[in-house]
Amino acid sequence: MHTSDLVVETTALTKRYRGGQLAVDSLDLKVRRGEIYGLVGPNGAGKTTTLRMLVGLIRPTAGTALVAGHKPGAPAGLRRIGAVIENPAFYTYLSGRDNLRVVAHYGGIAETAVDTALEEVDLLPAAKGGYGSYSLGMKQRLGVAAALIKEPELLILDEPTNGLDPQGMVEMRGLIKSLGTAGRTVLVSSHLLSEMQKICDRFGVIQNGRLIAEDELADARQAGLLIRGNPAGRVRVALERVAGAKAIAVRDGAFMVNADHVQAAEIHRALVRAGVEITELRPAERSLEEVFLEITGGRQ
Amino acid sequence: MIGPVRGEWLKAWRSPYLWTVGLLMMLVLLVRGYGLDWFLMSQSPATLPAATIESYKQALAPAAFAQQALGNPGGVTWALEFVLGVLLFGSEYGWRTLAAMLMVGPSRATVFGAKTLVLLAVVVLLVLLRFVTALASSVISAVTLDLPFSLPPAGGVATAFAAACLIAITYASFGALLSLIFRRASIAYAVGLTYLFVFEDRAFGVIAKSSAQSLRDLTMGFPGPNSVALVHNLGGGTGSAVAAANTGSVQAAVVLAVYCLAALGIGCAILVRRDET
């Protein structure tokens, strides 16, 4: 892959805190332009430390990183990045709009961008309200607006759904997916695997500061074919004939067949020949949680 | 630099906390510099000794307004100036907004520079307001107590104003530095106010009245005694001015300026080099 296709590229990035705690250990992370990349891992895995290094808040102990073509923390690079690390932080005595005005001044951005950013996160009606009176969901959205005001090519969001109620989670999920369009790259971290599954194009699993799985996750999630049909006895006989008895398992009333997607047509023909009424036949995927637990050995 | 300065100014201008500290400064000046003396003069002049009445008249007259604005508030106002520094720098840690600002784009040195410029502007404006308040109070005193209405020479007022600014900036810088060192407004307040009230106000005051010359010389290396010296030499009155009697204005001003530069230099180095977790 050409380097210019990568918006984030780290090589052996390492952070050891003064107390000796190794927070990030030789991390090689590659985020491609235009994708929504999920950095998944349990609490304390090193996600936030990694993101803090990428925006220059903390310095790596070893290793290198390039973010939006610049070293982390370089003003030229920061101007192309929008980031919300941990919870959004704003001035409680200022309104939502004035908080964004401060950000705009800091970023050398015209104040006209403020209302545009507020509109993008659906906060324009509450722009005059004091930040202190905002709900957690509104605070998160203001954080995203502050990140968007620079029209960044890379958006870094750390645990954006943390603490949100189900409605807030749905809204934030929709917002992140919409932000990942038009060539914008989104790097989002979370320990909520099911949420990431709904948002991201690719995942990296981080544990104890190391990236323990990445692209192979897509393959790992494939779990053969799921088949439902009537009568069940005749389905089993037909499947055993095509795939073999050892390749078949039953889960929640459905037959799970350890078979490749290309075998679906062959299996379908066999079921039809056996006179089975097929009600469902589709590729089965394991949840990200299942894969994650398998990769990490259940040490989440 | 202009953008971050505008951002910092917006925050400062809208901050109810800065307005509160500013109002407290004026209240201290009005009560300690004018209110109490005016009350005694207007309510019970017959019971006061002639020398006391004369000293009150001199202090309340417009001719002494610059000295009143410079010196009479004393330690409390210096403590409030220290609070200003903590408010502008230390509060960012409490709200966790500093990291958010550092991620926006300007370099850390630029962020520090913008915050420092706005801190200096706020401090100078509040000193100016103190002088205007003192002038207005002295005019009211002159009208109500029939005092002579003559203003001090402009040069004297300018010197007093510059000295008041230097002292205010010294204490505000001290507050900023402690905030950056401790990354907590609360601990910066605890350490700074303990130093101001226990050491500068009490311990150094006692040493100033003692005969231990070496200790007295030692205290002249600290900001408090040099501030007192500057005020004393420019005609302002504070209780422990005795210790400073032998210290010239220039020497005191140089010591304070060195403290300012050191505090801001160390503060900048801390912000630029340290991890913000």
Characterization of this structure:
The complex is a heterodimer of chains A (300) and B (277). Chain A is an alpha/beta fold. Chain A has two domains: 3-218, Rossmann fold, CATH 3.40.50; 222-292, Alpha-Beta Plaits. Helix content of chain A is 35%, strand content 27%. Chain A is built from eleven helices and 14 strands. In chain A, helix 6 (166-179) links the parallel strand 7 and strand 8 (185-190). In chain A, helix 3 (96-107) packs across helix 4 (112-120) and helix 9 packs across helix 10. Chain A is elongated, with a radius of gyration of 23 Å. The mean pLDDT of chain A is 85. Chain B is mostly helical. Chain B has one domain (2-198). At the A-B interface, helix 3 of A face helix 1 and helix 6 of B.
Quickly describe the structure:
Chain A has 300 residues and is α/β, with parallel strands linked by helices. Chain A contains eleven helices and 14 strands.
Classification by helices and strands of chain B: mainly alpha
Counting structural domains of chain A, the number is 2
Assembly classification: heterodimer
* Radius of gyration of chain A, taken over Cα atoms and rounded to an integer in Å: 23 Å
